């Protein structure tokens, strides 16, 4: 998990993943309680405890100033969601 420039977002790039199935990973994120916003081939967005942007590469942008929440979401993405 890496802090982005504005200190209100975190970037997560799961190891060993170069691409994901946006539909499948998006479904898993939705099942975790997030609401899907934008859906296109470039990214999907979600709202919930924090805002998320998911990219086809598997990268997840977590928009939250709460480091603990971001770390929890990052772990969930790296261990569960991205491996759909």
Report on this model:
Helices cover 27% and strands 27% of the residues. The protein has two helices and six strands. It is of the alpha+beta class and 84 residues long. It has a six-stranded antiparallel β-sheet with strand order 1-2-6-5-4-3, covered by helices on one side. The longest helix is centred in the C-terminal third of the chain and has 13 residues, at 67-79. It has a single domain (2-83), classed as TATA-Binding Protein (2-Layer Sandwich), CATH 3.30.310.
Task: Give me some keywords for this one.
TATA-Binding Protein, 84 residues, 6 strands, 6-stranded antiparallel beta sheet, alpha+beta
End-to-end separation: 20 Å
Helix count equals: 2
Radius of gyration: 11 Å
Could you say what the CATH topology is called? Answer: TATA-Binding Protein
Assign the structural class, choosing from mainly alpha, mainly beta, alpha/beta, alpha+beta, or little secondary structure: alpha+beta
Specify the overall morphology. globular
- Helices and strands, in N-to-C order? EEHEEEEH
Mean pLDDT: 93
Largest sheet: 6 strands, antiparallel
Which CATH class is shown? Alpha Beta
CATH architecture: 2-Layer Sandwich
Please indicate the count of domains.
Answer: 1
Number of strands: 6
Strand line-up in the sheet with most strands:
1-2-6-5-4-3
- Please estimate the helix content: 25-40%
Report low-confidence residues grouped into runs of 5 or more. Answer: none
């Amino acid at each position: 998990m890496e802090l982005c420039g504005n200190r209100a977002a975190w970037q997560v790039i799961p190891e060993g993943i170069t691409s994901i199935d946006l539909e499948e990973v998006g479904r898993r994120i939705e099942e975790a309680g997030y609401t899907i916003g934008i859906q296109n081939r470039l990214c999907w967005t979600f709202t919930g405890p924090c805002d998320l942007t998911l990219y086809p590469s598997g990268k997840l942008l977590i928009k939250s100033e709460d480091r603990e929440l971001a770390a929890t979401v990052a772990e969930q993405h790296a261990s569960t969601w991205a491996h759909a």
